[in-house]
Amino acid sequence: MIDNRTHYILKRELIKLNNFIEVKENFFNSQASTKAGKYKLQLIPLNKIDVIIKGIATREFFTWENPEHIDNIKLNFQKTPPVILEEFNNQYYSVDGHHRITAANELGLINILSFVIKVDKLSYIR
Fold this sequence. Notes:
By secondary structure, the chain is of the alpha+beta class. The protein has helices at 50-53, 68-75, 98-107, and strands at 7-10, 13-16, 20-23, 37-45, 83-88, 91-96, 111-118. The protein has one domain: Conserved hypothetical protein from pyrococcus furiosus pfu- 392566-001, ParB domain (Alpha-Beta Complex), CATH 3.90.1530. It contains three helices and seven strands, in the order E-E-E-E-H-H-E-E-H-E. Strand 1 and strand 2 form a beta hairpin.
């Protein structure tokens, strides 16, 4: 399976791949706190994301919840929103989307649709 999405509709605005969107703090519908700034919609290689590199993008990481949640994400993957990543020193750090990253990993995807912001300091350090 390939994540071949080239756009995403965010709050009634069409965002195309490689375009930027300027947002305020906590703009995204996310459990995580997101920074204000310019986010770029990109397809990011999974093997450059921290939770994949550290081997914690697995079902075993989510010990507190039903493993069927990942199955549901996999079934509807093409409809899921982009993950939110921070880019720091040419590596990507997951801010929101650990479940989607895990599902993408299980699906054998190479890339994942992401909103990416370049940062000088990470919001979350794993």
